[in-house]
Design a protein that fits this description.
This protein is mostly helical. The protein is 51% helix and 1% strand. It has twelve helices and two strands. The relative contact order is 0.11. The N terminus is likely disordered.
């Protein structure tokens, strides 16, 4: 009995005779190949030649070629969807920055507390257990009331108020505390950088803004902003993981930074996060021979027009710290695009 395999296969690929010529180029590139499935003879004396494996092999090859042929279309659709999601996240980030900028500009005294709030939420990270970190745990009353978080309630209140406004206008769901706390620190840093540029221009806001635009570090935030989609924890982090920065020795600070994978350089550049008085903090840090060269380096950098070394190292360090222990959800805050009902269009 003669069995033709081709007669049992769905018409996945157009079967073109070998002599046929292509008169026009296809829209998407296709793979030039031929699938040949020989006749399989089966009779009473040789039934074992009719192997199930032979059928599956031919069928798999046919389906595989069809998927390859159409992969260009699928790839373009996936790329378009990815572009839409990135645009949604970018627009959402813009609205967050606008809200935070306005809130901080109206309350500039809260900037040091916002920086410490972000750092203390980060520094609950435990490298051994991979727990803690920038997960928004500092929002819980039992954690914000700890000694190391003394004086940070005002900063948390600003974050809470900003969150209400952001969530009210969000299309992709509420923003996580873990994202918002780190973005509040970013906004605070940017405003201190801008204020420094204005001071260098004798207090002229317009000239200072131009100086920061021309020489500032705005373009260095790319990686920080891609790490957007942190997940909030639902309980406070364990106690005893964060030092009281205003009472800690330099060695205790070094030990804590070392415990999360950072050294004297990163400790020095994060001096503004370690308490309300950056000058006093740097005076203390400068007593340590390992930290002293970095303190001096960043002090010299802040005296220059661009502050490049200081700003770039600070942004790099905060970016790394703000990702400790986090699995970033790169689809967070995206939402389905509303489809157009063409049936309602009147042409």
């Amino acid at each position: 009995m003669a069995v033709s395999f081709l007669s049992t296969v769905p018409n996945l690929l157009p079967i073109v005779p070998a002599s046929a010529s292509v008169t026009s180029a296809p829209r998407y590139p296709t793979l030039a190949a031929t699938v040949r499935c020989s006749k399989i003879e089966a009779d009473a004396d040789n039934e074992d030649r009719f192997k199930r494996r032979s059928i599956l092999t031919c069928f798999g090859a046919t389906v595989g070629l069809e998927l390859v042929r159409s992969s260009g279309t699928f790839g373009e659709m996936a790329e378009a969807a990815d572009l839409i999601q990135r645009r949604q996240r970018s627009d959402f980030q813009t609205s967050i920055k606008d809200t935070l900028y306005k809130a901080i500009k109206e309350n500039p005294d809260v900037i040091p507390s916002l920086l410490t709030l972000a750092l203390n939420d980060i520094m609950t990270y435990d490298k051994a257990s991979k727990s803690g970190g920038p997960n928004g745990s500092i929002r819980f009353s039992s954690e914000i009331s700890r000694p190391e978080n003394k004086g940070l309630v005002g900063a948390l209140n600003l974050v809470e108020e900003a969150k209400k406004e952001i969530d009210l206008n969000s299309k992709g769901g509420p923003i996580s505390y873990s994202d918002l706390i780190q973005y509040a620190a970013q906004s605070a840093i940017k405003q201190t950088f801008l204020a420094a540029a204005i001071r260098k221009c004798g207090g002229n806001v317009e000239k200072g803004s131009l100086l920061y635009t021309a020489y500032g570090s705005n373009g260095q935030w790319g990686l920080f902003e891609r790490n957007f989609g942190r997940t909030d924890t639902q309980e406070p982090d364990p106690e005893g993981r964060v030092p009281q920065w205003d009472k800690a020795s330099v060695q205790e600070m070094k030990d804590k930074f070392s415990a999360v994978g950072f050294g004297p350089r990163q400790l020095a550049v994060m001096s503004a996060f370690l308490g309300p008085d950056q000058i006093a903090t740097e005076t203390l840090l400068a007593t340590d021979p390992e930290v002293l060269p970095w303190v001096q380096k960043y002090q010299r950098s802040r005296e220059t027009v661009s502050e490049t070394d200081y700003e770039v190292d600070l942004i790099t360090t905060l970016t790394k710290l703000s990702g400790l222990g986090q699995q970033i959800n790169y689809e967070a805050y995206t939402y389905p695009v509303k489809k157009v009902d063409f049936s309602k269009l009147k042409l």
